[in-house]
Amino acid sequence: MKLRSFLPVIALSLSAANAYASAHKCLPKFTVISAAAVATSATTIVAASTPNTSAAVTTTNDVQNSTTTTTTSPVITTTTNLVVATTTTVTPAITTTNLVATTSTTLTDAVPAPVTTADVVPSITETTTTTTFAALIPATTTAVSTGSGSCSNPSITVTNINVGESINVNEDDAGSSIISISSIPSGGSRIAYATTGGTIKVVTLNADDTINTSVATVTVDVVDFADLYADDTGFVILGTRDAEGGGTLNCGNPSNLCGTAPNPAIPCYDMYLIRFDGSTEIWATKLTSSSASLPPYSTSSTGPEVYMIWWYAHQGQIAFDGANWGAYFGAAISVSQGGCINIHQGDRMKVVGPLGEIVSSVDSFDWGCSHSGYERLVYDARVGHFVMICKTDNNDQLMFPDTYNTIYPVDLWYSDLGGIALDSGSGGYWASVSNIHAGQPADASGNADVHLIHFTKTAVASGVDADIVLAAGSVTTNARAPHIAALGSDASSILVAWETATSAGELQQGNTGRVLWVQVVSATDGSAVSNPVTVSAAGNRYSFFKTAHDGSVAYPAQALDSDSAINVVRVASC
C-alpha cells in the first residue's frame, strides 16, 4: 500500500509530540493536498423553538422490586427563542418542504444564555435505598421520567445505577475514556466502562435500565476500549492490547525513528475486536498489523510499513450488518521516509465475521482519513454497506474515508462530529456537527453552532443538500458536543442532542455550566417534531447515543453526584 500523498510527516521528538497533543483537540493543521470540491448548493435552516415544559415528573426508586413512586406538578420557567440565528437560503440540490415545525421571528445574534438544569427540572425529594448483593454489584437505582411518550413530547427517563466502584470518564482527546451502552435484542442492555484502577468491565441491565444482578459483571482484558456491541449471548468490544513487538514498551527499536525518539517513551498497542459469550472470551481478532516479527517501529529504519495504535486517540465505533461487525477506528502507521521511520495518524476500517475471521469487504480499508478524528459509521441495509465519515485536517472537512469525497467544510477548532444516521425516503444520511458561529475568530477557541446536515454518498463529491442550525451560538453562548441516533421502529424520526455553555472553546469536563439538550426531528427533512428539552445528565462529546432494538435511544453518562454511578438516559420509541 502506497502512503497517501497528503499524509503530513510528524517529527518524533518530545517537543513535537507535546505540540501535537496540545493541538489535537482540533486536529493539528497541516498543509495538505485539497480533497474533492465541496458542492455549494445547500439550504440553511434555523430550527428554533421553545423548550418543552409541560410534563409531570415521576420518580421511581427501584431496589429489589421495592418501588416508591412520587408524581409532582413542576413549576418551570419557560425560556423562549433559545435558538436564534439568521436564515440564509440558496438553491438546494434537492427540494424539501416544511423543514421547520416552529421557527423564530427574531433575527438577532443576541441569544440569551442557556438555561440551567434548575430552570427546567423541578426540585424533587428522592428516597434512595442501597442494597449490597453478595458477590455482585451494590445496586442503588433511581429513575426520573418526563414527557408523555409522543414524538412531539418524548418520554425521557434518567435511571441512576451504582456499579460499586469509581468510574474513569473523561474527554481527553488522546486518552478519552467513555461509557458505552448497547441493547440486547431480547431486552435489556450491556454497559462497558473503565474503573479508575484501569480495569474495563461490562455490566448487564434489565429492560428498565436497572442492574441485572443475576448476570455476573465481566472483566475485559484490554488497556482501554472504544465501543461495545451486545447480543443475546454476549458482546463484542473494540479495545487495545499491548503490541507484541518487544523492545521499548512493546514498540521495537526506537532508533529506527526519524529524529529523536520520544522521551519518556510512548507505549505501542494493537486494536482488537474481542468476542465474549457470557463471561468467557471466545476470540480476539487483531485489526492492526504489528507483530513480534513486525514491531510497531518496523524491522529497521527502512523496514516495511506497520499499522498499530500509538499515543493518538484510541477512538472508534462498531456497527453490525446482521452477520458481521464493522469496526472503524483511529490508528497510526509507521512508514519509512528518507531512510527512517515516520509515524502518521489516520484511521482504518475492518470487517470481522462470526468466528473472528477478517472478512473481505469493499467497505474495509487499511488507511482512510489522515489526520482523523471522530470516526463514525453506520450500517445501511438499504444498500448493504457500512458507511463511514470522519473529521479531518485534509482540507479541514468532514469526509468519506473510503472515497476521500468532501461532505462538509469545518473549522477544526469548532467542530465536534456527533455521528451519522439514515434518512427516510431519499437514500441519504443525516449527521450532526458543530461549526464556527458567524463572527467568531477562525482557528480559535470561540463559540460554535450545532448543525444537522443531510448528504448522499455518490461516486463524486456531493457536499450537503440541507444544513439546519439546531442550536445557534452567539457572543455569549457556545453550542457543541452534538449527537444523533435513529428513534422509533419505523425510521421516521431522529433524536439529536447537543450541549450549550457560556464558556468559549471546547466544552470542558466538570464545567457545571454545560447543559444537555435533546430534540426529535424528522428523518425525512430534518424538521422539528418536538421542542428541544434539557436532560439532567452530564454530556460527553465522545460517548454515543445509541438506538436500541425497541426503537428507543439510550445514552450513558457518569452521574453528576457520584463517581461510582451511571446515569442511563433513555428516550422512548415514539
From TrEMBL:
UniProt signal peptide: 1-23
Record's keyword terms, sorted: Signal
Protein name: Uncharacterized protein
Record organism: Physocladia obscura
Native organism taxonomy: Eukaryota, Fungi, Fungi incertae sedis, Chytridiomycota, Chytridiomycota incertae sedis
